[in-house]
């Protein structure tokens, strides 16, 4: 048994608040709360759809309430921040080498933004009913 | 050091997949369903019961629902679980079960509802 008592630096629950880098890290991780909340909203929509036409129409009507608009505005901001931070990490997670050279980071990030634009347009046009 | 098999590869792949889905699809999905639709900017019956029901009865439609609900939920719960650690909240075992359990329940609920359509 060792009798030494090494000093352990105390670390409180607000350690991240003291530095902008850590604050942004917590904000990035915090986007997940709104990703989860929007997922639950989609689950409610699906539940209303299963219940029937009346429940579905009531759900769609409820989406026009000021509270629902604010909720979706915050979710959109958070989901967009998630997308930006996620894409900026892609050169780290997709370490692609071609002929002994690493693929330029800008190309990897740019390709993701290209895919994002295409996917977004498909979603907007498909759901919007203009097909 | 323990040689017990880690759960990390499984939840990390769900986290990664969910992160990709959330990044590529959620901003546009939120914009259309939560802002453009209430603003009346969509086609008249874009979100009508009949149209959404027909979409959801197709297996491809069901796959879309499951993809946009379940995967981002695994992603979010993974971050919430590790975020609680960052916030120095104790009871790791309990929150492991609560976080990933919640994602599992949402996944099963989504699947069950989709089968009921």
TrEMBL record, chain A:
Pfam families registered for this protein in UniProt: Fumarate_red_C
Protein's UniProt keywords contain Transmembrane helix: yes
Keyword Transcription: no
Coiled coil: none
UniProt keyword annotations, A-Z: Cell membrane, Membrane, Transmembrane, Transmembrane helix
Stretches that traverse the bilayer: 31-49, 69-89, 110-130
Official protein name in the record: Fumarate reductase subunit C
UniProtKB/TrEMBL annotation, chain B:
Pfam families found in the cross-reference section: Fumarate_red_D
Listed HAMAP family: Fumarate_red_D
Alphabetically ordered keywords of this record: Cell membrane, Membrane, Oxidoreductase, Transmembrane, Transmembrane helix
Main localization (coarse): membrane
Record bears the keyword Nucleotide-binding: no
Residues that span the membrane, as ranges: 12-39, 59-81, 93-116
Superkingdom of origin: Bacteria
Topology versus the membrane: Multi-pass membrane protein
Role played: Anchors the catalytic components of the fumarate reductase complex to the cell membrane, binds quinones.
Subcellular location(s) of the protein: Cell membrane
A molecular function (GO) term: succinate dehydrogenase (quinone) activity
Protein name, as recorded: Fumarate reductase subunit D
Family the UniProt entry places it in: Belongs to the FrdD family.
Gene label: frdD
Signal peptide span: none
Subunit structure: Part of an enzyme complex containing four subunits: a flavoprotein (FrdA), an iron-sulfur protein (FrdB), and two hydrophobic anchor proteins (FrdC and FrdD).
